[in-house]
Design brief:
With about 240 residues, the protein is mainly alpha-helical. The protein has one domain (about 1-230): Rhomboid-like (Rhomboid-like fold, Up-down Bundle), CATH 1.20.1540. About 60% of the residues lie in helices and about 10% in strands. The chain has nine helices and three strands; from the N terminus they run E-H-H-H-H-H-H-H-E-E-H-H. It has helices at about 15-35, 40-55, 55-60, 75-80, 85-110, 110-130, 145-155, 180-205, 215-230; strands at about 1-5, 160-170, 170-180. A three-stranded antiparallel beta sheet has the order 1-2-3. A hairpin with a 2-residue loop joins strand 2 (about 160-170) and strand 3 (about 170-180). The protein starts with a strand and ends in an 8-residue tail after the last helix.
């Protein structure tokens, strides 16, 4: 179920949403330029960049055997939000941000929305770190912050209609689905995958890479809380 657009018009130009998309795109292009460089060690340089500016749980908790002093672990919580693991990773994140971010920005205002977005990303990294405090695998991506946007959107516009692409094997169809179903299904998937991941790690006795499911969950839940803390006292959209 891939969302394509919603039916909630924005009253204002989504300045912050557009700026965030532009910054993510610029960072991704820089990452790609590192990986495609002519030097023999270009791929390693790109990996080192991610390791340096991605947020690593054991660096935050001080449990890494070797801790790099630069950049500060606290700084990487923010820099990691603008790095991505590939074209599909950033394309999916920016699609969700474009569809749902403009309306949340409209409701909060530009300044509040920027604070909301960054704090959602911080909360996302925090929960993933709490679940795996000894992990040495860097986390990157805007997914945690965007999950906060989805949580706020669910509260603000639960009955908005979202145009989604449904694919069943060779059958594909465009249908409008209420946001409460689209986003409700999304968060259930995150919880289920998070529990499966914990079970797999416990069974294997070692950490694994892949999607940071609990970052998504932390971002989503924090987005709901932050909405009530940051929203204007009076808004005709709430």
């Amino acid at each position: 179920m891939l969302p394509l657009k919603d039916d909630v018009p924005s009253r204002t130009f989504p300045l912050v949403t557009v700026a965030l998309i532009a910054l993510n795109a610029a960072a991704f292009l820089y990452q790609a330029s590192l990986a495609m460089g002519p030097e023999p060690g270009a791929a390693r340089a790109a990996q080192a960049f991610v390791a340096e500016f991605g947020v690593t749980p054991c660096r935050l908790t001080g449990r890494c055997p070797l801790v790099d002093e630069f950049p500060s672990p606290a700084v990487t919580v923010f820099t990691a939000m603008f790095l991505h693991g590939g074209l599909f990773h950033i394309a999916g994140n920016m699609l969700y941000l474009w569809i749902f971010g403009n309306n949340v920005e409209d409701a909060l205002g530009h300044g509040r929305f920027l604070v909301f977005y960054l704090l959602s990303g911080v909360a996302a990294a925090g929960l993933q770190t709490l679940v795996a405090p000894q992990s040495s695998i860097p986390m990157i991506g805007a997914s945690g912050a965007i999950s906060g946007v989805l949580g706020a959107y669910l509260i603000l516009f639960p009955y908005a209609r979202v145009l989604v692409l449904l694919v069943f094997g060779f059958f594909a169809r465009l249908v409008y689905v209420p946001a409460v179903i689209v986003l409700g299904f999304w968060i259930v998937v995150q919880f289920v995958n998070g529990l499966v991941t914990i079970g797999a790690v416990a069974a294997a006795g070692a950490e694994t890479g892949g999607t940071a499911w609990f970052a998504h969950i932390g971002g989503f839940l924090s987005g709901i809380v932050l909405l009530f803390l940051l929203r204007p006292r009076r808004s005709p959209r709430l």
